[in-house]
Amino acid sequence: MASRKSKLYPGEVTLTNCDLEPIHLINRSQSHGVLLICNPSDKLITGFSSNGPDLFHELERSELPLKINQILDDKIIHAIFEDIPSEGANFKKCLIGNVPHVVIYHCSGETLILEFEPLNDDIDPVLQQIELSHIFSVLNRSTRVQDMCDKAAKLIRDFAGYDRVMIYKFDEHWNGEVVSESKQAKLESWLGLRYPATDIPSQARALFLRQGVRIISDVSDQTQSLKNLGNEDIDFSLSELRAVSPIHIEYLTNMKVAATMTAAIVFDEDLWGLVACHHYSPRFIDYFKRMSCKFLTQVFSNQLGLRSTNTNLEKMNRSNTVRAKIIERISAHRNIQVGLSKASGDLLSLNESSGGAVYFDDELSTFGDAPDEIKILNLFNWLRKSSPGDTFLTENLEGVFSKGAEIKSNVSGVLCVFLSSERNDAILWFKPERIKIVEWGGNPEKSVNEEGGRLSPRKSFDAWKAEQSGHSEPWEDYEIASAKALKDHLSDIILKKYDEMLRLNKKLESVNNELESFSYSVSHDLRAPLRGISGFSQILLEKYYDALDDFGKSALETIASSSTKMNSLIDDILSFSGLGKKSTELSTFEMVDLVKEVLEYLKANEFYKSTSITVEKELGSLTGDRSMIFQLMNNLLSNALKYSAKQSNPEVHIGREQKAFYVRDNGIGFDKAHSKKIFGVFKRLVSDEYEGSGIGLAISKRVIEKHHGRIWVESEPGKGTTFYFTI
Amino acid sequence: MGVYGSRANPEKALPFILQFDKLPMQRPYILSIEDDKNDIALMQFAMSELDSTYHMEFLTDGISATAFFNSDAFKNNPPTLILLDINLPGINGLEVLKKYRGTSSQPQVPVVVMSSSDRDDEIRQSYSLGANSYIEKPRDLNDLRGKLELMTKYWMETNKL
Predict the structure, then answer these.
(1) Residue ranges per domain, chain A?
(2) Mean pLDDT of A40-52
């Protein structure tokens, strides 16, 4: 994950006019104080804000430049020049016309900037100390980040007296979200609202990082121009009185905000967020109170840093515990597939995903909120082809995968780990599109009265919404780490299992061979008594039928038909076990011819007169073992004919879609849930109403396996069935 | 009603099984070497419905079959056709065939191997050991009737040549 450390100008941010505005060079100052520009070498005042004469009458009477001692007494001048800061700002208390003031001064290049602000005389440092230490202990007590944000917002509001205090958190793209809020009850809540990065442009963020805390005491203030004889391009970044950008003023006016205070929440030199205070009438809080707020915010920042680290540690610990549980379960099941599918709940809580999928041994299982299987398979196939490493992650799937757009609502973020170097098996986690999970604290349109003609918060909100479409919450470092750790664990297990499996495979092979010859000989042994049953019952039918009463007749008929059934069952078992041994003899032949032969063999025209059988003319040719393919088509076609025969207009169609051949009927169909089961031996979904051994499809699957092809089925009860195969 | 009498019990059909020292010397016959009593009874039955010129004699194990092939009785009155099962108690049918075809002093009669097995190797082996034909044991009565009729007719005609 890219660190946000000291990164104030991310490439993603659209540079609006707002971003380009040189706000630190604005040559205006707020009216709650007076700004003087001084040349420290000759102690000459070379400039002042236009409200300067209100405080220093001499400024009106004399021409610039004038000596500093013409307006300030020597004591304070001495104090200032004794203590000029090389970095940042210093302050001195002073009385100007018997009113307590503070002068805040700093150097900007060669220029000394002095700013005079009135002090509220009601400050009792002892009380303030008590108040701050109370705040400190409250913050210290809270253990969770959210709780701490809530408390901090409340405390700062109590302390600084603003109508609304918000904790505003930046995401990795510098979009902001109000994560906590303390406000007057009558105000509309903005909790959860998000603002685009352009609302607090990069250069403003840079200034926050340098200065810590700033106020706008009156948004409607016309502000003071600067009279300046000296250097024109003074950098006022660190000025307390500096007027703000007219765009920002417009922004605040749109929100009907009259005064603000903003403090930067910084840890690890990183701008985490802001404490944003709004007041709905002009509000000035003096420098000392602001410094207290700054201090308070710093305390909060430190605690937050600590808690965030704790929270991350907690998340990581929780994730580790979950991972251990998954591994334990897999070991207990001695089967990764089963273990993983049973662990779906844990896979979900391993990280902050909303869903995911496990693809293992050609089986797909999903957990949580996931799109349907075909879409996941598409995604998975794309991942296998396009992502070279063993891990893949994105927060914007549709940006990299064209089919991603159709699943972006639940899959905009993807984290995928491949479990083997063959990249056949993988675990995927999904995160939904972020826009979906943003809870709007209020109607974002409401605060727009008139269109200001330029940037207003709500207009920019719309722009952000479009830009964020298809993006998920980012994958955090711990989430990626824990996915990789799980992968490593599983790979170990897989390797061990692989050795075990090799041994087991050899054993199985011989057992299987034994089983096959066993079933072969058993089937043959069964034939002999069956010939007796069948032969003698036929003799009875022919010679003694009339001598029996009705029950006897039906009993005899049952014996005869049962023995016929058993014969065909044995046939099927024999051909199934026989297939295991046969090697394929390849030849190329026309499928149309083969289908015709099968239909003749099945006497379809005779037994299924009412079935409309259509065969596509252009089936093309196929290379494979002709007798096996005959057997395959025989099974598929006899099924199709059998299960559609009872429909009013039975139809069977043999066709081809790209590489896949298919046999489609409009018969009874079956539930999708059975579509894998039906290829097993003796798996019958229907009652004895339809004759069959339950081996036909198992044989078909074997034939396909022998050819390294694929067979699958689509069906719906009452709507017919289509079998597809590729070879 | 032929050979069965009123009860279709294969055990009761056993008296019809050949005792080779008491061979019927006059009439042409088909020799079946078969241990399955059901099969014997069914073949008897099917044969009884066919041309009465031929009748069937049975041996039920490989040892007595081999002994019979080496006997004077066989030399003096060989069957027109031998139907040979593979799965036999004692010596199996293929062994029997090998020994018989290896005994050039005895008359060589057409041998049709009849087995319920359809294993390629057994089929190939049968022919290489000198079987004249190989057929899978018929599954039902009508099949049996047809095959017996065809075989008797074919081999009788061939023998006349």
Answers:
(1) 17-22+122-222+236-308, 27-118, 335-475, 476-581, 582-727
(2) 90
